[in-house]
Amino acid sequence: MDSPDGQHVSAPGLLVIDITAADEATAHAAMTLDRLWATSGPRPVRRNPGQAGVKARLYEDLSRRPDEDTYLQNVAQETRS
């Protein structure tokens, strides 16, 4: 995976989580962190040929609850369109 963009870790409380799991169901289960903090939401899961498992990346803002309007939710909407 590429290095995180600086904007995603530009302030305390912002973090990027790279997920590696055996299968897609496990990766999606790990992404349920959006129940605790504001996140970019469920992300696409990728399989790299010749490598075991699947990978995904999740962006989180630990300073905000998931029901608050956040910068990360706006970024997620922009990347989905």
Instruction: State the end-to-end distance.
Output: 21 Å
Shape: globular
Rg calculated over all Cα atoms: 13 Å
Strand/helix succession: EHEEH
Tell me what portion of residues adopts beta-strand conformation: 15-25%
Which regions have little confidence, pLDDT < 50, spanning 5+ residues?
A: none
Fraction in helix = 10-25%
Order of neighbouring strands in the sheet with most strands = 1-3-2
- How many helical elements? 2
- Strand tally: 3
The biggest sheet, with number of strands, parallel, antiparallel or mixed sense and barrel status, is: 3 strands, antiparallel
Structural class: alpha+beta
State mean pLDDT (0 to 100 scale): 79
List keywords for this structure.
21% helix; alpha+beta; 81 residues
Describe it:
- Strands 1-3-2 form a 3-stranded antiparallel sheet.
- It is an alpha+beta fold and 81 residues long.
- It is globular.
- The chain contains 2 helices and 3 strands.
- The relative contact order is 0.25.
- 21% of the residues lie in helices and 22% in strands.
- The longest helix is centred in the last third of the chain and has 10 residues.
